[in-house]
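User: Please fill in residues for this 159-position structure.
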């Protein structure tokens, strides 16, 4: 598959593109399969790399097939319709479902900070929540920079 072809998703370990109607692997652990998390892997080797990081005890890689491009577009359209009728948050990135947005924080640093400050563990879902809050802060700062006629977001734009 060439790099210019659209990808369905990217591998959670190596970030290699997983195209439409291709084989991929998913983690059997329920927290990895939630709609917001939904991590997928291009190979069993990539899946195997995330197991010790997330400390899974009884996990295995489940083989699956990605949707065709048409199936994926239908799912996106259904999701968009659902979002519009429920007044839920929609993605800032056009055409990208909420769960597809990448994590914007360095997970290891956040986990280390929480460990140092309070000797506590950190759920993987924390990274998604923090990324959402960072996106909101950035979107607001972008709006303030535009209102000021600037093409540069400054520290004063982040409240």
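Assistant: Residues filled in for all 159 positions:
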């Amino acid at each position: 598959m060439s790099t210019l072809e659209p990808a369905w998703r990217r591998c959670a370990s190596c970030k290699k593109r997983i195209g439409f109607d291709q084989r991929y692997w998913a983690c059997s652990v329920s927290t990895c399969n939630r709609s917001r998390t939904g991590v997928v892997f291009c190979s069993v080797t990539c899946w195997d790399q995330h197991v010790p990081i997330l400390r899974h005890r009884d996990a295995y890689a489940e083989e699956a097939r990605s949707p065709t491009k048409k199936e994926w577009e239908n799912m996106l359209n259904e999701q968009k319709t659902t979002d519009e009728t429920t007044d839920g948050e929609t993605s800032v990135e056009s055409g990208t479902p909420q769960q597809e947005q990448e994590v914007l924080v360095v997970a290891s640093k956040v986990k280390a900070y929480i460990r140092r400050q309070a000797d506590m563990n950190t759920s993987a879902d924390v990274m998604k929540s923090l990324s959402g809050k960072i996106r909101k802060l950035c979107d607001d700062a972008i709006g303030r920079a535009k209102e000021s006629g600037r093409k540069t977001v400054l520290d004063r734009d982040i409240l």
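For context: Residues 125-147 form the longest helix (23 residues).
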